[in-house]
Amino acid sequence: MSVEEVSCLSEDFASRTTTSVLILYADTYFGRRMFQQFYGRKSKTGTCYRINACMWSESSVENFIDYCDTLPFQMGHSFRSRQSLPTVIDLGTQAEKANLGSTIDGGATQGPDNADGTSHQLNVFWRRNGPKLHQAVLASDLIVVELRSAQDVFDIVHLLTTKILRKTKRLILVSSLLTWYATPPLQRESVEEVNGETDSVENEEEGEHHEEEQEEVQQPMKPDEVEALLGPLEVAEDDYENSPLEGEAEGELELLTEDQYNRRIPHAKYFNWREAERVVASANSDDRHLQTCVVFAGLTYGEGEDVMESFFRQVWSREEHGLPIYGSGSQIVPCVHIRDLVTFAQRLLEAAAPPTSRYVFATDNSNVSWRRMVLALNRAFGGEKTFHVPPSEYLLHKNVELFTMNLRVENSTMNEMMDESDWAARGGFVDSIDKVAHEFIESHNLQPIRILILGPPLSGKTALSGAVAKRHYHVPTFTIEQVREEYKEHIEILKSRLAKFRQCLHEREKTRREEAKKRAFLRPRNKPEVKEEEEDDQNAMGETQQQPTASPDSGRQGNMESTRLVDCSTTVAEDDVDGKAVDFSLNEEEMQNVEALVDDWYQGNERAIQIRDTIASMERVLSMRIRVQPPSSNDPLGSSNPKKRKEGTKQKRVAKVVNKKPVAEEEEHNPVQQESAPFQDKALACMVRWRLSRPDCRNQGYVLDGFPETVEQARLVFGQTPLELPENNEDTVISLPSAPAGSGGYARTAVVRHSASLSANAPPESTELCDEDRLPDFVFVLTAPDNYLLDRLTAVSKISGETGSTEEKCLRRFEAAMANYQQQYTNAEYTLPNFFETASTVAKVLTPGGRTPTVLAVDVSGQPLLPPPPPESDFAVPEPGQLEKLLCAYVGPSHTLGLSPKQLFDEEIRARNLEMEERKKEMRAITEQYERELRECMMESEQRSVVEDARRAIDLADREALEERKRPLRMYLNHNIMPLLSKGLVEVCKRRPVDPVDFLAEWLMLHNPHDDSCFEL
């Protein structure tokens, strides 16, 4: 008996209590979820699973145990706490990993039993470790292989078919529908092609006439172009699955069934996969005790994503170019949720009998196009932008074959084997997009960070909000003033979109009609024998002109100045218009017809209707203001006669009825007063809700600065109750009595306070129910004593150079703001911080609810009065302050996908520029030091030269003085002594006496002409 047979027999006893499962490959997107299905669970027969995890990457072997530690294992115990689960880790082949010793010993033994009397074993190894792979294949009862390498499949099937199997094994190969990518339809010649051959003899002019009639019916802009101008059509979530999209011919696509596996033709890159599928299917044999099945999986999604992760990252990060639409976008892409695929694979492994078909489909029950999937993904994360990728650019994109599949398959086996409770996304990608987006956010820890910073005036809210939002968490930050400006700018953007859309409609229809006139002018001259066609064309043009006339207002928008002059001198006959330029521009009546037709299209476009309704509702919000009634000149209440007072009231009512004017007309007469009137709390809440619903706030979060100011505003902004807007502009203005006489210029402040105090700060019965997407996670209330805030006000005034009158105004505004702050934070029974302490979110479909914000009071009295100056370099990152570090310690790390390639490049460029700037600064310092030392050296040299010149001058003067003093003596010697002495010396040289001195002295005495003088010498 061979060694393999002995090993198989020795494993029979162990297999009675455990079921061995081999997963290839446990470190992939599919393999990890498959591992989770078996890890720490029991089979239907009550036996536990012994898992052999084969890794695709060698580096995953060491990290897989740490991954297992994060998974729940039997009542929530972690992997490392279960001493009953011994682990075998094989990092490579024998000689390469021999130095690891007993830690990675291949012959792991059974550990102590669990509480239920069973034991488990986890065997982790690399796919290139041949002995371990062969041992795991022969020892496993259930084998699930993800088709990534066809050669690995060939090796496993060859091993199973060449060995004697004592027990039935079941092999599931999870492949892809890419092996069906190029499957042709059954009927290659359609009815349209046959009709095309019979209609080839028809007259060409009739085809052109029919084409012109079709052009007049259809709109001049395609849905893609309308979407590029106006954005995607907003459809309700319930109707999104059934909303029709132009260009999708789902019913015309052939439905493929599981018994048509012999027809499949794979993509050019996956021909070896088809061979691997055939080998697995042909290995199915009861005599060999081997049951096989091939699963064709659609595009997988969910739980963090795999190949679609890049699209989720793009739309979550709000990248500028948007999501790609490959080709026309109408291709039907079969999809399946990764959890449904894993569950289906487990059902196939644990089924009592294998499915009747050796080839089965694993897809959801939806047949949606790629364009619809992109639009659903944009809707889930608030994106709008898309761009089209032509087939010529497919090679520039990764995994593009997965997104250009155009298949409809029937998943009959999957529907039969899986119950309704087993499905995670039976309705498909579009129907479950909210759940899929939530899974992506949870798996990548991308929960939005929502922060609210409140506090008294001049407490540093704005500076702190900007620093925390931009430096640390990369989220938007805004004040209520910025929200109002963004709200108005968004209205202008929507209006500009509508204007551009209408202008494009007008220009295209105008151009199309001019081209039609040109064709009608040239056709009879190209074929003069056909004269009846000219009359037909003129009749067709007459039908086109018989459109409903446009209104005068719509006629003004026509561009009457743009005309097109076409030179027809080379195409017309000699007797036609003498070769002069022919004007094909539309006349006034035709332009009115164009305006009427464009107006019909403009008024009937669904997206344009949505935008106009949005603009109208947003403008009604802007008109929700509080108007102060001016004081009346008459004082009927002050009159002493009650009868006159009653008559005056009656006359006033009659005058009001006669001279009654709408609110909008009164606003037109006094626009300055209306523009300066304060907004209602509901209007401010609508603006803030709109801003918090923008994609950047929904995905990343926000830092809200100094708003809300009252409890009523907080309830309107964060409450779950929808805000009802007035139906017309007449109901948007609330009139309040003006301030009493002598109140000065602070009447508006008093009105605002009065409007804020209309509803008392009454505490709720239990909790403040708030919306999950808007309620902040952290509320920081900055506190500081009044003297500190006054000192900061003084310091800010000095820096800004304000005069005395301006300082007084600032002081009054500060006092008014402090009074409002104390009323809402300290003096009231139910303050604004109390609102957030009692606030709680409401449960939704994907969120459990019950989230409460963390409210913290932060004392800022120890901070400097003025912010530190910015760094000298524009590329330097300012050092975070102590208060920033404190807030970041409470909030925690940022929830992002990391820096994008563009951000990494910008950061690298900034670091390089900073390094270059510092290097230039060092070089500049060295150069300056060198120049300074050179200047000092030159100055010292000059000083030395001056001193040397002075010394030389002194020496020269001394020598000249000495020479002047020696002159009389020299003259005396030269005149009286030197002549006689020189003769004496000559005589000494001639005679050479023994004693020359005595000889010279005697000679001088003898030859001295002046005895007296010599004697005196």
Task: Set down the secondary structure blueprint.
Blueprint: H1 3-15, E1 18-24, H2 29-38, E2 48-55, H3 60-69, E3 87-90, E4 122-126, H4 130-139, E5 142-146, H5 150-162, E6 169-176, H6 191-198, H7 204-217, H8 223-230, H9 237-240, E7 255-256, H10 271-282, E8 290-297, E9 299-301, H11 309-317, E10 323-326, E11 335-337, H12 338-350, E12 359-362, H13 370-381, E13 386-389, H14 400-403, E14 408-409, H15 412-417, H16 433-443, E15 449-454, H17 461-473, E16 477-478, H18 480-526, H19 532-545, H20 552-556, E17 565-566, E18 582-583, H21 588-604, H22 606-622, E19 626-629, H23 642-658, H24 663-669, H25 671-676, H26 681-692, H27 695-699, E20 701-705, H28 711-718, E21 734-737, H29 747-756, E22 768-770, E23 778-783, H30 786-800, H31 804-825, H32 832-838, E24 839-841, E25 854-859, H33 882-891, H34 901-991, H35 996-1007, H36 1011-1016
Parallel strand pairs: 1-2, 1-5, 2-4, 3-4, 5-6, 6-8, 7-14, 8-12, 9-11, 10-13, 15-20, 15-23, 16-20, 19-21, 22-24, 23-25
Antiparallel strand pairs: 17-18
Helix pairs in contact: 2-12, 5-10, 7-19, 17-33, 18-19, 18-21, 18-22, 18-26, 26-28, 34-35
Task: For this entry, give a set of tags.
1017 residues; Rossmann fold; 5 domains; 8-stranded parallel β-sheet; 36 helices; 25 strands; extended; kinase; coiled coil
Describe the sheet with the most strands: 8 strands, parallel
Output the CATH topology of the largest domain: Rossmann fold
Total domain units: 5
Shape: extended
CATH-derived architecture of the largest domain? 3-Layer(aba) Sandwich
